[in-house]
């Protein structure tokens, strides 16, 4: 799971696609995916056209 979070942190465009439902995390259940998304939202990591707000 740490590898996935690290990858999404380094590749925010992929995180956006996962949040939008245009990509999925292979080998990760829907519940786990939702937890990852909520974790990023919980630390206020939100993308607006490529600009990140922490």
Features:
single chain; 54 residues; 57% helix; two-stranded antiparallel sheet; 3 helices; globular; mainly alpha
Topology:
Layout: H1 2-10, H2 12-20, H3 30-42, E1 46-48, E2 51-53
Antiparallel strand pairs: 1-2
Helix pairs in contact: 1-2
Explain what you see.
This protein is mainly alpha-helical and 54 residues long. It is built from 3 helices and 2 strands. Helix 1 packs across helix 2. The longest helix is centred in the middle third of the chain and has 13 residues. The chain is globular. The model has no long low-confidence stretch (mean pLDDT 82).
**Would you tell me the structural class of the helices and strands?**
mainly alpha
Question: What count of helical segments does DSSP give?
Answer: 3
Q: Low-confidence parts lasting 5 or more residues at pLDDT below 50?
A: none
Mean pLDDT: 82
Largest sheet: 2 strands, antiparallel
Strand content: 5-15%
Q: Considering DSSP H and I runs of 4 or more, what fraction of the residues is helical?
A: 55-70%
- The strands making up the biggest β-sheet line up spatially as 1-2
Taken from the alpha-carbon principal axes, the silhouette is globular
Q: In total, how many beta strands?
A: 2
Number of domains: 1
SSE pattern: HHHEE
Task: Report the end-to-end length measured between terminal Cα atoms.
Answer: 21 Å
């Amino acid at each position: 799971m740490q590898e996935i979070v690290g990858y999404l942190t380094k590749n925010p465009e992929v995180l956006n696609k996962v949040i939008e439902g245009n990509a999925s995390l292979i080998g990760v259940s829907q519940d786990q995916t939702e937890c990852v998304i909520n974790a990023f939202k919980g630390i206020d990591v939100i993308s607006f056209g490529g600009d990140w707000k922490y």
